Amino acid sequence: MNNIHHAAYGCRDAEQTRWFYEDVLELELAAAFHSDQAPGTEEETPFMHLFFKMGDGNFIAFFDAPEITDNDWLNRKHSFMMHIAFEVDNEESMLAWQKRINAKGKSCLGPVDHGFVKSVYMYDPNGIQVEITCKTNRYAELMELEKQTSRANIAEWSEMKRSYKEEKFGVAEIAKRGNQ
User: 106, 113 in Cβ contact below 8 A?
Assistant: First the structure.
C-alpha cells in the first residue's frame, strides 16, 4: 500500500464540520456531494460526503447521514479510542497553529511533550479529538528503539491483559482475527 487516500468519520452536521476543518484548521474543502442511496448496497440512506484535502494530497472525510447516525456516537471520545493527528514541520509551526485556533474561539490545549513528538489538542464538533503534532529531534532514534522491542512489548502486554480482556469481551472476541 502506498498511502492513506482518506479516513472517514461520521459527523453531526456538514456545515459545523466544514467550519471546523476549513475555517479553523484551514484544510481545503475538496468535495461535498450527497446521494439518497449508499454506494454498493443501493440502500435508501441519504448522506452528504465531505472531503478535506491535506498538504500531502490525502484527505480526511466525513459522512453527514442523520437517519443512521447514533447521537451517542457523537459524544466526545476518549483519545485512546479515536483521534486524528495532523503533522506540522516544527514546534514553532505547531505553536502558531495553537495560537491561530485559540484566536478563532476554539480551545486548543497543550503542548504535551511525548518524547518523540510534541502535540496540542482540541475536539472537533463530532467529539473527535484532533491533535496537531511535530516530531522532536529524537524522533527517528526513539522510533527505531521502539521498533526493536515492539513484538516483545505486545507479547508482554497480551500476557498481562489476556484474562481481563477475555472476561470483559469474551474469549471468542479476543480470539478473532477480523473474520466476521
Answer: no
- Rounded to a whole number, what is the distance in angstroms from the first to the last CA of the chain? 23
Domain membership of residue 162 as a residue range: 139-175
Assess whether 24 and 55 both reside in one domain. Answer: yes
pLDDT tens track for 112-161: 999 999 999 999 999 999 999 999 999 999 999 999 999 999 999 999 99
Q: Give the pLDDT confidence score for residue 177 in this predicted structure.
A: 67
**Residue 48 sits in the same domain as residue 93:** no
For residue 33, give the CATH number of its domain.
Answer: 3.10.180.10
**Number of domains present in the structure of the chain:** 3
Asked if residues 83 and 91 have their Cβ atoms less than 8 Å apart, the reply is no
Q: What is the pLDDT of residues 57-72, one digit of tens each?
A: 999 999 999 999 988 8
User: For the chain, where are the E strands, in sequence order?
Assistant: 6-10, 28-37, 44-53, 59-64, 83-87, 109-113, 117-123, 129-135
Q: Judging by beta carbons within 10 Å of its beta carbon (0-12, 13-18, 19+), is residue 114 exposed, middle or buried?
A: exposed
